[in-house]
Amino acid sequence: MNTQLERRGISQRALDIADKVEAFVRDKAVAFEGDPRCGSHGPSDALADEMKALARTAGVMTPHILEDGSHLTQRETAAVLIRSGLSPLGPLACHTCSPDEGNIFLLGKVASPELKERFLPRMIDGSIRSAFFMTEPASDGGAGSDPSMMLTTCKLDGNHWVINGRKTYITGADGAGMGIIMAKSDDGACMFLVDLPDPAIRIERVLDTIDNSMPGGHAVISIDNLRVPADQMLGASGEGFKYAQVRLAPARLSHCMRWLGACVRANEIASAYANRRMAFGKPLVDHEGVGFMLAENLIDLKQAELMTYWCADVLDSGAQGGPESSMAKVAVSEALMRVADRCVQCMGGQGVTADTIVEQVFREIRAFRIYDGPTEVHKWSLAKKIKRDWKAENAG
Questions:
Q1: Using alpha carbons only, how large is the chain's radius of gyration in Å?
Q2: Does residue 107 sit within a domain?
Q3: How far apart are alpha carbons 64 and 71 in whole angstroms?
Q4: How distant, in Å, are the alpha carbons of 213, 263, 326, 340, 365 from that of 362?
Q5: Number of domain units in the chain
Q6: Hey, is 307 helix, strand or coil?
Q7: Sequence-distant (≥ 6) Cβ neighbours of residue 243 within 8 angstroms
Q8: Is residue 77 included in any domain, yes or no?
Q9: Neighbours of 343 (CB within 10 A)
Q10: How far, in Å, CA of 388 to CA of 34, rounded?
Q11: d(CA 274, CA 291)
């Protein structure tokens, strides 16, 4: 699926990596899509380990991180992560999945040399999974889309910080080997790196959710008097939101990349079905109602691809990319929801069965519209920017 858009501004090395990833996902990862180890709370760790072993052999483990530890550009990363998303299992197999991909990016940008040495090698080689502890239960009045509502606290006690609170929707916490925890001190938000499991961090339950592509599912967590050495804080007390912003814009875009790949594949399956399936004397694709839906899919997929690469270029320019990543997140998630819905509709009854990945992609994309901020929150943020910009332009 090497497109003209991909080839512009992307090194041949990165395009070669993307081609290898696509070949691996189509030839190896796809074969596991019906595996019984894919459960309601995500693929089992045994299945993940088996696929990761194949990825290492194929040379596509964590493919966006080069041998010298450097990161591909965001445009190059898009070319690779879109390909990894061609199967819901592809990001897990290639270790480009959330939250690991975003956590690796964050540590590479802001962690101390000591913390990088301690955590990054195991994260990059896929020997451990990670989790990001930020969202809190609405029933407690804690932080969701508004991180300023954070209730989880951290207090300095000698050379340790003591953390208490509850978290929810923590992806992959069950089975993770390390975590990044956000808490609030008297100075403001803080971010800590911790080894997992830890007896002070208890999984209350793993939620039953609409999506199931991520190992460990999404958990509700209690943190009771967790003691973390002071040197495991990222930066200084009160700098947590600043570091969260380093992670959030690229992480939003990475979701766009992976799920764009999934919808490309879902559309392939729906298109093949519409060309093979006969109804009323001709293939479904020849019926305008079906053919037009598939045509609209091509339009939405191309627009999603354009938005993804545009935002990648903004991030590659050195800009923080907050508004641009909000625009991309809204545009891509909404376009892909339309694509996934049409794929199900084109396939009729077959589209709602687990005989293909189309129904899973539909479920996953519905959740994607909420991941890393719902559409409405991003629109609200953009509206605030419009107001700020107008006031600045009309001051005095």
A1: 21
A2: no
A3: 6
A4: 12, 9, 22, 5, 5
A5: 3
A6: helix
A7: 106, 110, 191, 234, 235
A8: yes
A9: 30
A10: 50
A11: 8
- The letter for the amino acid at 27 is D
Residue given tokens 């625009």 in the structure block? 327
- Among candidate residues 223, 117, 115, 73, the one with its CA nearest the CA of residue 162: 223
Q: Which residues pair with 182 in a beta bridge?
A: 191
The answer to whether residue 178 is domain-embedded is: yes
Sole residue written with tokens 């939405």: 300
Cβ of 323: how many Cβ atoms within 10 Å? Answer: 19
CATH code of residue 205: 2.40.110.10
Of 226, 225, 243, the C-alpha closest to 234 is 243
Query: Taking a C-beta distance cutoff of 8 angstroms, is the pair 290, 334 a contact?
Result: no
Backbone torsions φ then ψ of 281, nearest 5 degrees: 85, 5
* Same structural domain, 60 and 158: no
pLDDT in the model for residue 8 = 79
For the chain, which residues score pLDDT lower than 50? none
- Two structure tokens written together for 108: 């590479």
Amino acid at 372: D
Sequence letter at residue 69: G
End-to-end alpha carbon distance in the chain: 53
Query: For residue 317, what is the domain's CATH number?
Result: 1.20.140.10
- Cα–Cα distance measured from residue 192 to residue 103, given in angstroms and rounded to the nearest whole number: 12
**Three-state SS letters, 252-311:** HHHHHHHHHHHHHHHHHHHHHHHHHCEECCEEHHHCHHHHHHHHHHHHHHHHHHHHHHHH
Residue 180 dihedral angles phi and psi, to the nearest 5°: -115, 115
Cis, peptide link before residue 197, omega less than 30° from 0:
yes
**Single-letter residue type at 241:** F
Strand segments (E) across the chain: 38-39, 42-43, 130-133, 153-157, 160-171, 178-185, 188-195, 201-206, 218-229, 278-279, 282-283
Question: SS3 letters for 321-363?
Answer: CHHHHHHHHHHHHHHHHHHHHHHHHHHHHHHHCCCCCHHHHHH
For 261, the domain range is: 241-388
Q: Please count the residues of the chain.
A: 396
